[in-house]
Design a protein that fits this description.
368 residues, alpha/beta, Isopropylmalate Dehydrogenase, 2 domains, twelve-stranded mixed beta sheet, disordered N terminus, disordered C terminus
Amino acid sequence: MTQTPSPDKPRVGITVGDPAGVGPEIVLKSVADPDVRRVCRPLVIADPPALRTQADALGLSCDYQVVTDSTPASDYPEGVAILDVGLPTEPVEPGVVSAAAGRAAVAFIEAGVTLCLDGRLDAIATAPINKQSLRLAGSPFPGHTEMLASLCGADQPLMCFFAGDLRVVLLTTHTSLIEAIKAITKDSIVAALILTERELRRFGIDKPRIAVAGLNPHAGEGGLFGSEETREIEPAVRDARDNWHLAASGPFPADTLFVRAARGEFDAVLACHHDQGLIAVKCLAFGESVNVTLGLPIIRTSVDHGTAFDIAGRGVADHGSMVKAIKLAAQLVGAQNKSRSGAQTSAQSMAATREARPNPEAHNLEVR
């Protein structure tokens, strides 16, 4: 359903990602979408001359006001604007990995995070980056999640994919399968469940029901097919329920769990490793899901696909996931504000109740 315009729409920063990929194209297509403009005030974070060159080549609109880091947020236009990060323009060829593209991608992300932490942006939505370009640029980070955690000073960020009512959280991300298995410990699972529950509450789900996927076939079948479930996962779920009072359950066989969650039985699934969770998400909602980073002091969403170098510069990229990422960012800002407002109202109500309660000593009453 289309939302009606609001005078207090959130300002969402949108990084164009790796400029050699489809990021600039899908961002320009997205901010031209009337539905995006109805729910937020987009700030495209890019190199304006390079972005305009790409827009001209693709026949896309890029006639937006340019602002800089020194522009007060009060002077941002109500509609779409472009933030000039002050990056020296370097030649970037569509579809080609390069250090120049990696440096640009890093600069866009750093600018977006800074503006969010400063309160000049309410959220950021990011277009895809290329890990090889990052490495050539000298970045120590394997991807967005790790870079964002470092920039925000976050200890344990988690990747979470929103696909309609299905939410899939990844216990481990960009690591080999054998290393991911080693990382599946009782403590890491409990910490992930606590963080997931807290973040989903932050985004408006009052008592999240979180299911944990088993690592092995049939969730280990009582130890016949592996011991990780009985040794690590089951104790973690019990701890989360008994000591942290979370609505956690599992481990469940992964081959049926995601279908159960998609049908509404659970609010989120904690997957043991990257492909276990993302194969399910992309089979159910490829191009429709949105990556949300949990555990950051800012709101960050992203597309569910990569840089698509094979079609970069051709004007044929589908921008549907980018639109959904931007709109979800705006929706999460509203949910967070509502959650905070409700918590503040509750705290004020409790304080008022305490103040109104009779003081036995003041009234010389006997306490029984």
